[in-house]
Amino acid sequence: MDLFVNGAKVDATLENEKTIGDVLRSFESTCEQNDAAVIGIKVDDEKVDADSFDSYAVRPLTENMKFEFDVVTKQAIGDAFKRLSTLFNTLAERMEQVPVDLQSGKGKAAGESITQLADNIELFCHTAALSSLFPETYKSMLIDNKPFADFFADFTPVLSQFEEALQANDTVLVGDLSEYEICPRLIAVSKALEAFHDI
Prior knowledge:
199 residues; 5-stranded mixed beta sheet; two-stranded antiparallel sheet
């Protein structure tokens, strides 16, 4: 049996495992003991998802079977939040600068800030989704005294309005939204993530 974790081959010896399900359950148990969670499974290059898990689980093991697991650790989530805290803090400063950039003809710099904003919010949402795999650690995490979902429910309309202002080339509204709506929210995200750095 060949076992790969996040693309790297690891040594593995069978104990009493007889079926694919035995191996999957044994590996998931090991992950739980080590503050990790399985987020993807392949057996012999075929993806195993929630719908196909039961049918795979009953299949007998064969000698040359290949297992690939994508795994995320609680430490990796904490590290990602730490990086994002710094990124959002820097991005808040850049968004505060957007009105000045627009007024001084630095549209390219403003555009780069806006692109970075979109990329980092997407990265944050992905990381926040993964953090839900460790509810005992992250379920109490609030942004500006609100759960993630509520915070972004309030933030999303602002971002939509911001996108519309960009498309309309309404530099005054873009500047106002950057400075007074987006910047304070980015600082709130940064502060919230900073509190969870060292978990």
